[in-house]
Amino acid sequence: MTPRGYGPSAAFCPRCASPLPASAPTTCVGCGYQLFVNARPTVGLIVLDPAPAPVGLSVPVGRVEPAGSAEPAGSSAPGEPFEQAGPRFLALRRAAEPMIGRWETPGGFCDGWEHPAEAAVREAREELGVEVILGDFVGMYVGSYEFQDEVLPVLDSFFLATLAAPEIVLDPTESTELTWFFLADPPPLAFATMDAAIRDAARRLCH
């Protein structure tokens, strides 16, 4: 990684550009600026399908389906054993680096003094083109995010949510497609914080 910026690999003072004597946390010998490495606040949304797949229906993992589908595409014929049933969550396929092409939950960085709950609603509006109704707070998770040639520490707050309207309009700069996965059997997601939050949500909601 290139030593630059305000992140853990910063080698020069962001105020006066003098070489730093050590990795952060440190103090610039040129101007006295104190540099710390603080986790960036981020948010994630576990958007639940309002109509989970009924017991007895089989749904191929990764199949793209509309929210609230009473009989998901790919359902088994009557009488056939089901593969999975229960709560499903919305996943988006990343359109940009890092982790391009991987599945993720909606979310992003908090802006300035923005509260995580406010950031979650804003991110849903930007990425999904729809309002969401926030539910329970799932948890807070420490992770990493690669940005501008640095690996930044992040503090990721996750919320349960439901869609206020079913018509999702993806931002093509953020996501290339969407699908619904079972909470009880998710694929590996783009970031470890997402995996951990989905596991905790599954423990709470899957019986």
UniProtKB/TrEMBL annotation:
Molecular function terms from GO: hydrolase activity
Cofactors demanded by this protein: Mg(2+)
InterPro entries: NUDIX_hydrolase-like_dom_sf (IPR015797), NUDIX_hydrolase_CS (IPR020084), NUDIX_hydrolase_dom (IPR000086)
Keyword Hydrolase attached: yes
A Pfam family of this chain: NUDIX
Domain Nudix hydrolase, residue spans: 72-204
Keywords: Hydrolase
Domain of life assignment: Bacteria
Keyword tRNA-binding: no
Protein name per Swiss-Prot or TrEMBL: ADP-ribose pyrophosphatase YjhB (NUDIX family)
Source organism (scientific name): Plantactinospora soyae
Source organism phylogeny: Bacteria, Bacillati, Actinomycetota, Actinomycetes, Micromonosporales
